[in-house]
Amino acid sequence: MEFTLPQLLVPAIVALSGVITVLWKQTTDRQTKTEEKLVQCEEQHVQHNTRMIHLSEKIGKLEGRQAGIEELSQAVLKEVRNAVSENTRTDEGN
Length: 94
Fold this sequence. Notes:
mainly alpha; 95% helix
């Protein structure tokens, strides 16, 4: 029995159509999962950026506070040294 060209092509076309359908379904499923993961990633990115901004503000405040404390301590030390040296001069003068 000999097969004609249409008899050979029809099953091949049907098989290829089935393969294409399966591959298309897999691709769209993966794309959907990838999009869901991307949305989660973007949400986490926004949360992390917000947290980083908050922490940066806290660090800035702490650095400013630290600088103020250092300036104040230097001023106090200077006054104490001045007071001690004046006290020493006064004691030497008596």
